[in-house]
Task: structure prediction
Amino acid sequence: MIAAIPSPSFNTIGPFSIYGLCIALGVIAAVSLSQRRWTEVGGGEDDISAIAIWAVPAGVVGARIYHVITDWHRFEDESFWQIFNVRAGGLGIPGGMFLGVVAGMIVARARGISFPSVLDAIVPALPLAQAIGRWGNWFNQEVYGRPTDLPWGLEIDAAHRTGIPTEYQNMAENPTFHPTFLYESLWNLGLVGVIIWIDGKKIVPRGRLISVYMFGYGIARLWLETVRIDAATELAGVRVNIWMSIALIVGAGIVWFWPKKGDTSDDAVESDVLVE
Result:
């Protein structure tokens, strides 16, 4: 192997897991971007922080619930309390997105804010948070794909090859694997730019920018799930997250074409977007 991406030999800094720190950095970046975008259209300076206080914890809970449900086999021989051990990794993005959005909608309505408008401000922050958070998987040596000879192949210690097909666990040579965490991180960064560009063109009706994210992430995740080799729960012989990806793509179409009441014009007037 001429070149390869090494995996870190540590995943903590003092008492803190680097996985958790990456999640935290992703949240900070997402809140910052959302705040800037929201105030640019005339939103209140403390609206995003008020939403984040509830949406972020709800998102973490939803992400953990999704992971436990879809990867229940990982906990069969573990203590019940391992279900709550987020430090070791294990957050399912679809669950986090769902509960986070629900919590955000409740807070927005309670504050008299137009949820479709604030959601448009937040949407590009979602893939930004994911792009940063995925680097926690690098430190945990998880979320990787099939062996590859490509120069950006990822080195994985033998101790972290459990749960993958047997033929990959004890290979005679030290193989390198597709860094699917990196693929997803780079794709999400590109998706941030695409969403912001599309929003700037004012070609998407208010409240439907989320469909661009759902479609973009669904397409990427659909491909990545065909590359990953970690153990996964299957439904009808297909990885659950492949079904989830298909659901996201279909859901994006439903959101895009769903008839909306009231103002669905491409250009939202500031005085209209702030209050429902």
